[in-house]
Structure formats: structure tokens, C-alpha cells
Amino acid sequence: MKQYQVTGMSCAACQARVEKAVSAVPGVESCAVSLLTNSMGVEGAAAESAVIAAVEAAGYGASVKGAPAASAASADEDALVDRETPVLKKRLLRSLGLLAVLMYLSMGHNMAHFPVPAFLENHVSMAITQMLLALWVMYINRKFFTSGFGSLRHGAPNMDTLVAMGSGAAFIYSLAELYLMSAAQGTGDTGQLMHYAHNLYFETAAMIPCLITVGKMLEAMSKGRTTDALKSLMKLAPKTAVLLRDGRECEVGIDEVQVGDVFVVRPGENIPVDGVVLEGSSAVNEAALTGESIPVDKAAGDRLSAATLNQSGYLKARATRVGEDTTLSQIIRMVSDAAATKAPIARIADRVSAVFVPAVIGVALFTLAVWLLSGQSFAFSIARAIAVLVISCPCALGLATPVAIMVGSGLGAKNGILFKTAVSQELAGGIDIVALDKTGTITSGEPAVTDLFPAEGVSGEELLRLAAALEQHSEHPLAKAILHRAEEDGLETMPVTDFRALPGNGVEAVLAGETLRGGSGTYMAGCAAIPAALQKQAESLAAVGKTPLFFARGDELLGVIAVADRIKDDSARAVKELRGMGLEVVMLTGDNERTAKAIGAEAGVDRVIAGVLPDGKEAEIRRLQRSGKVAMVGDGINDAPALTRADLGVAIGAGADVAVDAADVVLMKSRLTDVSAAVRLSRLTIRNIHENLFWAFFYNLICIPLAAGFYQKLFGWSWEMSPMLGAAAMSLSSFTVCMNALRLNLFDIHDPRHDRVRKKKSKSNKEGIPMVKTLKVEGMMCPHCEKRVQKALEALEGVESAVASHEAGTAIVTLSAPVSDEALKKAVEEQDYEVKGIE
């Protein structure tokens, strides 16, 4: 995705105009414009110059967003600097000073009889002074007029058009009244003179842009707060690094660091770039990236990430990723891209925003005509029309989704949860099934000793000490588990000789002239007598997925040590939380069914699918998708196809780069509870968007008829909404939407107490018609063929989604309405593929 900065946008109508203009450029596949960050994401092969030209032709400005790799973070940070608020504040202060004088003259003197200089006692002189003051305020806020009438000239009226027309209409009407006042003064008609003097709206013409500026400033301040999380990430980027060159330390700018350079980090310093420790050991605080406050021990061979804090030791490391390739830069890019993309829920607001301003102008003209035809005065009618113009607020519609998405993605980033796009952020809350890879996701991925069963006359400590002595030269993962347990218990490893590994059986060695043996029960049965009680215990261990290892000294059995890949401490809690949200939790594993079911029962999953080969996970995801939307959670290279196939791919623990690239959501920690937190955050964000959209639609639905005087006529109210009150209401509506989005920061996304079970969409309609059909398709040879079939099926009315697989030779179609088999078959065969059957 190529990102651009867009200037000149003021509301949702501007956003829609830019999107429409750029989407029409040849080579542009998709375009998403963010009013919040004034940015635009464009996908496709279109030239940058063509995209920029399209934006400029629409009446706005654009420039490529980017910088050299090393300084990209600072460039992005610069792009998020709030330059709007200081300008608006300065403009507002100047406007308020002049408006105060104008209000003193128009309201204070005329209504409360406040004193004024003698030369202003003349009504015409007073009106001319008010006109000049109003003109001055309008000039200070001339951006509304240049932008509003400029966009009108381009055929794309926006919010500024409504403000400019409302203020301009009040000014022109008052100017006409001023001329009539002059004529009345010339004829000496005092009654007419007083009548015209009371019909002046110069203070309204000045008050409208003034109040809208207040709202714009509040909006800019609250919008600035929604990007705080992203700005705080950017500030973490180190500016310098200490390199080792020719045996000497020298401090250089971060943009001078290259891959392969050796750098040093002292206690209390931030790590400048991603690297691998060469020498030294330390505790590194990675809270900035993962949200985990407990420091992580680092030693030679361990990986370091830029912007993390070295707390204790001196480290020497080699740079492995610099500039835009560092973990920090990738996090910044993901959060930024999420803000630049658009959630599907935003389409409703986009469609409304595209026609909103022209519709409001039409309503204002209609209001003017109706009141005039009903016999009201022109002064009354124009006041109602102006009120309609200034109370309408397309900004609230345009901001409803992006501010919530930005706050949500920022909150996620603070907790180590990264949504790559706004689509994935919305989709996470609508998942029906969560498929969990076993190794490294539910379990730790490393075998550990779980049980010790010493034989009669042998202590547990002696059993473990002798087993560790035997296994110390073995490279087997199970041997490492025994050595790790012995180290934890503080046992010293005794030296052995004549070590031999017996593939498929076990190991043996000599200690103090006696032969030590260890291995499977079958092998050890020929070396030592195994008591029936221990044999039964070993079978029980195997039944729950553990591996029993027998150990003997000479022909004397020492006992049994059970080793297993233990589930993580938080796995059972995470599964419980996911099930508490109404999600079905499925475990995928290549283990045998007995072991898999044991681990699944311990974790508490709903279903276990065992014996799945690495390349078979993708097929299992396709089968699960027949029952609903599926999220796949994995961490390895072999999970990448399944992560891509799933509706939502989640890479946990920032595992293999391939898995991270294939995923839609990246969890920086290896904590499974972050999966439930991601779902919870998505649901909170979507609920917040719904609240914002409701407020934006409800506000306009209620306030436009109110401003037009509809309720006055319907209920016989005597109260009239002045244009100034309408402008104040408009200025507060966008501010309200932004502040509501900021409420997301108050939620604890790891707190399950308020979780609700989401009703799962039925796979059949009211008539019982199956809502999922599987087509047997011949002729698909590659992913491109899959896309052609999928696109053809999804173009049919009633088809909600289609998933095609050239490997399985199927296309699974989810329907939202009845679609005949003939229509499905015709759509596929028109793409030159053959349908062999439909189930």
C-alpha cells in the first residue's frame, strides 16, 4: 500500500470526493482516505503523479507520504504533529475579540441599551460599523469561504460550503437591509428605519464561522489525542547508536547504522536497532513493544529489539535489522496502515456523506420556499434556511468510524496486539470459531518434566540426578527437559563415560563402573525388571499424553520420569474466556488422537482435530468455514497457509516472519489470553462505532427538521432556533463523536467480566434452505483460478461469500438468500471451469 498526505479536506464529503477521484485513476485497485489523519492509502500499479493529479483535479492537495528508511519513523511522527490546533486557536482568539465588540453593539446596545459613542446613535452608522466588524471576522475565517465555494465550483460541496452559504446569506441579506435603511433615512420614515434595523443579521454572519471554529478546534484537539498511541510509539525510536569501529566506541546517528554493524548498549540505554547479542548478559525491559512489564533476560545468541530498555548489564550486539525493518518500525507501520484503511462498517457513512451536503442545500432552499409560500416574512424564512445550513454536520459521519479505529488500534498496540488493517479489527469481533495450533500456541512448545516416580528404595532426587548424568550428552529434546529440571532443583551433573545413543530405543553410559540405561518401556523391559505398579503408572501417563521414560542402574530399575509438552499457564483461562464469548474453540495438532485429546481436555477446548499434517491445516480451516467465520491462531512457518486461508489469521508471540506476514493480527507476546483480548477489543471498537454512527444520524435526523421549523409548525411551538444556536450545535457534534471514541481508553481489554455471548448466525434461512453449498469444480490449477471462481460466485445476488480451492477441487459458497444450483453452475462455467456436482 502506498500512502499519501492529503490537504484541504474538512469533512466526510471531502473524503468521499477524494476517494471517488482517485478510484477512477487507471491502475488503482483500492483507495481509502482517512479524514482523521489526513492520509490516503492506495493499492495498485497507478503512477504516483497520476494519483496526485487526480486529487488536485478534485480541488485538494496531495503528496507522497514517506522518507528514507532510517528516518521514516521521524517523518511519520512529523506527519502526525498537531499543526491545526495552534492555527485555529490563534484564529479563534482574533475572531472572538472582534465578535465581542460586534455583540456589544448589536445586542448590548439595541436590546440592553448599553452606552455607545455618540456617532453610533445613528442607525445607519451603527449598521455600517456592524457590517465592517462582521466582514473582518469573516475575513479572518476566510478558509471556510475559499474552501466552501471552491469545492462548490468543483461540483463537490462540503461542510465548508454549508458554513459559507449560511454566513454569506446572512451577510448579503443584512447588506440589503442596510441599503433599505439608508433609503428610509433619506425619506425620514422612522418606522421603516427601525424595522430594517431590527432585521440585521451581521452578528449571525460573524457568529457562524466563529462557533464553527470553536468546534473545529475542539475536534482537532480530540483528534490529536486519538493518535497519541501512535505518536508515543514513534517517540520511542532511538536517535543515536554507539558503534564499535576499529576497537573504539563512536556515537553515530541512527540513520548511519547498517546491517552487520556491531553496537554496544550500557545499562539504562535504549537499544538502537534490532540485533543479536554477541557478548554480555542483561535484563531488557520490552514493555514498549509487548506491554509486558517484567524484564526479559538476554544472553549471547538472544535477539534484541529496537527501543527496548537495557536495565542492568553491558551488551555487545550485531545489527540484524535497521530503519524500516526493525520491529518498532513494523509496529508503527501496522498501526498507521490500520488507520489508513477503512472498515466495512464505514461504507454506510461514506454512501450518506457523498450526497449529504447537496441534500442539505436542497432542504434549505425547500425550507425557504415553503415558509415564504406559507406567508411568513423573508427575514423569518431566510433565518430558517440559514439555520438548516449551519446545523447540518457531515463531519460527525465522517469521523464516526476512523476515530474509533485509531483509538482501538492504539489501545491494542499498547497491549502488544497489532491489527494490520481496519478490516481485521472489525472482523475479529465477528468470529464464530477459533482454531488453535497446539505446539507453541496452547503448549509451550518445549518438553518439560511433569512427574517423578522412583522405584522402591530410590529417592526422587537420586532418580533425577542419575537420569541427568545419563542424558547430559544427548541432543534429544526429552533429555534437555530432564537436564533443565535437574538444574532448577540445584542438582550437580556427575561425569559419565562410554555414552551411546541407541536410536529408537534410548541411551546408555557408564558411571563409577556401573552401566546407566534410559529409554522406552519396551527397550528397558529387556534390561531390568519393571514392577507391575510402575508399568501401570506408565500406561496411565501415556494415556494423558505424557511420555514415560524408564531408567535403570545395571539391572536395577531406578524409576520413571514423565516428560510432556505442557500447556501454557494461561491457556485454560484463555480458552474459557473465548468460550465465554460464545466462540467454538478447536485445537489442531499432528499428535495422535490419545495425546491430543488429553491436552485438549486439559485446555478445555470444544473440539480436537488430531493427526493433521502441516500441509493439511489449510484444508481443515476450509472445512471449519462451513460452520462460520474462522480465526486461525499459530506461530510457525507451517501455519502460514492456514493463517492465509482463515477469515482472520492471528500470529502469536511474533513468531516466524512468514507467519507474521500471513497474519491479519499480530500478538507480540506468547500469551494466549491476548487472543480473547483482541476479540474483546474488536467488539468494544465496533460497539463504539455503532454509538458514533447512531449519534451522527440521530443528530441530523432530529436537528435539521428542528432548524427548518418543522416541529414549530407540527406542535405549535413558539420557540425558533436561531442560526447562531444551530452553529453551536454543529460545532459540538463532531467533538462529541471524538470524545466518545476516546472512552475506549478507559476499558481493560483483559477483563472478561463484561463479556457477552454473541449469537452465531444460522446457516439456514427461515424456510430451512441450506445456506452453505459445496461445488465440485474441475479445471482450477492455481490460486489465480481460485480467485476467478470466487469472484464469479460472489458477484451473484444472494451469495455472501465463496471459498475456492484448486487443491481440493471445491468451491464452498455461503448464501444470505436462496440461489439456485443452475445459477451457481452457470457462473462458474462462464469462467471456463466445469462443475461436476453441488452438495
Alpha-carbon Rg, integer? 35 Å
Strand proportion, as a percent range, falls in 15-25%
- Helix percent reads 40-55%
Number of β-strand runs: 30
Order of strands in the sheet with the most strands?
14-26-25-24-15-22-23
Distance between the termini: 39 Å
Shape: elongated
Low-confidence stretches: 67-73, 762-770
| Biggest sheet layout | 7 strands, mixed
Structural class: alpha+beta
The average pLDDT is 80
- How many separate helices? 31
Written account of the structure:
With 839 residues, the protein is α+β, with helices and mostly antiparallel strands. The protein is built from 31 helices and 30 strands. The chain has a seven-stranded mixed beta sheet with strand order 14-26-25-24-15-22-23, sandwiched between helices. It has a six-stranded antiparallel beta sheet with strand order 6-5-7-13-8-11, with no helix packed on it. Helix 4 runs antiparallel to helix 9. The longest helix has 36 residues, at 673-708. Residues 67-73 and 762-770 have low confidence and may be disordered.
Could you write a compact summary of the structure shown?
Helix content is 49%, strand content 20%.
Supply database-style keywords:
single chain; 839 residues; alpha+beta; 31 helices; elongated
How would the blueprint of this fold be written?
Layout (H helix, E strand, L loop, with lengths): L1 E6 L4 H12 L4 E7 L4 E6 L3 H10 L3 E4 L7 H8 L4 H29 L10 H18 L1 H12 L5 H29 L2 H8 L4 H25 L1 H8 L4 E6 L2 E6 L8 E4 L8 E6 L2 E4 L1 H4 L5 E3 L4 E2 L4 E2 L4 E7 L5 H14 L5 H28 L4 H14 L2 H21 L2 E3 L2 H6 L5 E5 H5 E12 L5 H12 L5 H12 L8 E6 L3 E6 L2 E6 L1 H4 L7 H12 L3 E7 L2 E12 L3 H10 L3 E5 L4 H11 L3 E3 L7 H8 L5 E5 L5 H6 L2 E5 L4 H6 L2 E3 L5 H36 L1 H6 L7 H20 L29 E7 L4 H12 L4 E7 L4 E6 L5 H9 L4 E5 L1
Parallel strand pairs: 15-22, 15-24, 22-23, 24-25, 25-26
Antiparallel strand pairs: 1-3, 1-4, 2-3, 5-6, 5-7, 7-13, 8-11, 8-13, 9-10, 9-12, 14-26, 16-21, 17-18, 18-19, 19-20, 20-21, 27-29, 27-30, 28-29
